[in-house]
């Protein structure tokens, strides 16, 4: 459910018309709905409210905009971060350091130190050596770092290969059958409070069965660790809940997820931690674009829009599907290809799709672009960095400026021997 609806035939974000935003900010532009963010944040929170102890950490890689993080901080969400930059963002958005979880397979020593300096709530360790380094850093400074060990449960998440993370051959976590011996060694180290385990098997999971299978393995591991004398107080179940990208697509709901978690984790007696990203912000954003040309071609015509793969990379990277709809549709449909201006055939959003009839100058949106949209944008082809707008009721604000090529060039230097 989202708050992008048509009023008098014109697409609105809450009570603001998309053409009004486009007129003021230009296109392409990401538009987010505060009410939708809040709705999803509270749906998940409510679905997990019956569990004894829960910590929600928004995976800020999905949408790190400071205003978006501010909305979620007000909902009581902490952050799951994977870099020093994301850690700085979480803090800048007002998320308390103790609510920050630091994930990531390649945290540098400087990033581990930053986490210690800021006093973050938890480090999710990806390998034994990382635990040794963190323990040594913390111990040398008279600190004890709260940490859990990420395990790889070897479960097929049934999602796109590029966003699957829980198969044995993936780079993430330690093999679940080696977790006990690593725990035995790391838990002894001064400087480390190794208090639990973490998993994250992949993203855009539309069914719960792979998550359930992975959680059960974690439950067995927790029992095994306790039997070996370890104190386990925290289990981080990661993110991964999918969203509908196709109109009418059904995916597991927050309630179904909450019920499954309650059933599987019954009796674990731990604080359960979650790292949702896409579920919170996916449907809370659209990418607004203007049609430049409708170009005749050998097959279907090409609708050339002013958004491109540098603004929304998901179709080019994962063959991802995003609904395309006219902001003021006429009711007529035609079959077309949709592409951006970037000089690559990969800069194609759809081939042979039945869409609203559009013409040069019309506005349109790509839906479900609030997660892994602007955050993955680049300036390829020396295009401006796409701006972001946040709507709330009848108000809107530019929450990220369009960064122009002149600004990017301003950070480049031509050495004297080239001039
Ligand atoms: N926790 C960890 C450790 C993760 O690696 C991720 C996502 C999440 C949580 C949040 O997952 P979510 O709830 O959003 O599924 N760029 C890709 C998605 C990459 C996901 C990476 N990890 C896409 O556009 O589909």
Automatic annotation (TrEMBL):
Domain Orn/DAP/Arg decarboxylase 2 N-terminal: 36-281
Active site: 343 (proton donor)
GO BP terms in the entry: lysine biosynthetic process via diaminopimelate
Amino acids binding pyridoxal 5'-phosphate: 240, 275-278, 372
UniProt cofactor(s): pyridoxal 5'-phosphate
GO molecular function: diaminopimelate decarboxylase activity; pyridoxal phosphate binding
Protein's pathway: Amino-acid biosynthesis; L-lysine biosynthesis via DAP pathway; L-lysine from DL-2,6-diaminopimelate: step 1/1
Keywords: Amino-acid biosynthesis, Decarboxylase, Lyase, Lysine biosynthesis, Pyridoxal phosphate
EC number: 4.1.1.20
Record PTM N6-(pyridoxal phosphate)lysine, positions in chain: 61
Annotated binding of substrate, by residue: 278, 314, 318, 344, 372
Catalysed reactions listed for this entry: meso-2,6-diaminopimelate + H(+) = L-lysine + CO2
Its biological purpose: Specifically catalyzes the decarboxylation of meso-diaminopimelate (meso-DAP) to L-lysine.
Subunit structure: Homodimer.
Similarity remark: Belongs to the Orn/Lys/Arg decarboxylase class-II family. LysA subfamily.
Protein name: Diaminopimelate decarboxylase
Taxonomic lineage of the native organism: Bacteria, Pseudomonadati, Pseudomonadota, Alphaproteobacteria, Sphingomonadales
Gene symbol of the encoding locus: lysA
């Amino acid at each position: 459910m989202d708050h992008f609806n048509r009023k008098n035939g014109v697409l609105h974000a809450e009570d603001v018309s998309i053409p009004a935003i486009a007129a003021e900010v230009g296109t392409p532009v990401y538009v987010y709905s505060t009410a939708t963010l809040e709705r999803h944040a509270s749906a998940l929170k409510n679905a997990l409210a019956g569990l004894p102890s829960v910590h929600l950490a928004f995976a800020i890689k999905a949408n790190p905009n400071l205003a978006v993080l501010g909305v979620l901080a007000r909902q009581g969400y902490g952050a799951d971060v994977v870099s020093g930059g994301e850690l700085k963002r979480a803090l800048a958005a007002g998320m308390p350091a103790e609510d920050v979880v630091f994930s990531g397979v390649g945290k540098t020593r400087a990033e581990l130190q930053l986490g210690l300096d800021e006093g973050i709530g938890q480090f999710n360790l990806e390998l034994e050596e990382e635990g040794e380094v963190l323990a040594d850093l913390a111990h040398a400074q008279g600190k004890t770092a709260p940490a859990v060990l990420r395990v790889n449960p070897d479960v097929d998440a049934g999602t796109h290969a590029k966003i699957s993370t829980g198969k044995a051959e993936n780079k993430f976590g330690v093999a679940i059958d080696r977790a006990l011996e690593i725990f035995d060694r790391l838990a002894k180290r001064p400087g480390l409070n190794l208090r639990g385990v973490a998993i994250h098997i992949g993203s855009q999971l539309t069914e719960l069965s792979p998550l359930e299978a992975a959680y059960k393995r974690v439950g067995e591991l927790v029992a095994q660790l306790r039997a070996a004398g370890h104190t386990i107080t925290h289990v981080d179940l990661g993110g991964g809940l999918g969203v509908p990208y196709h109109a009418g697509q059904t995916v597991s709901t927050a309630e179904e997820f909450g019920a499954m978690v309650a059933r599987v984790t019954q009796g674990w007696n731990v604080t359960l931690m979650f790292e949702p990203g896409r579920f919170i912000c996916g449907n809370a954003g659209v990418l607004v674009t203007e049609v430049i040309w409708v170009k005749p071609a050998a097959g279907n015509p090409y609708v050339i829009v002013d958004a491109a793969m540098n603004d929304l990379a998901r179709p080019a990277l994962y063959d991802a599907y995003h609904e395309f709809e006219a902001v003021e549709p006429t009711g007529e449909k035609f079959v077309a290809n949709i592409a951006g201006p970037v000089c690559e055939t990969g800069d194609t959003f759809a081939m042979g799709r039945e869409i609203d009839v559009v013409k040069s100058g019309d506005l349109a949106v790509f839906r479900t672009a609030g997660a892994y949209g602007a955050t993955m944008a680049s300036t390829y082809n020396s295009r401006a960095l796409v701006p972001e707008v946040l709507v709330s009721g009848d108000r809107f604000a530019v929450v990220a400026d369009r960064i122009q090529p002149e600004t990017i060039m301003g950070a480049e230097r031509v050495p004297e021997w080239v001039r």
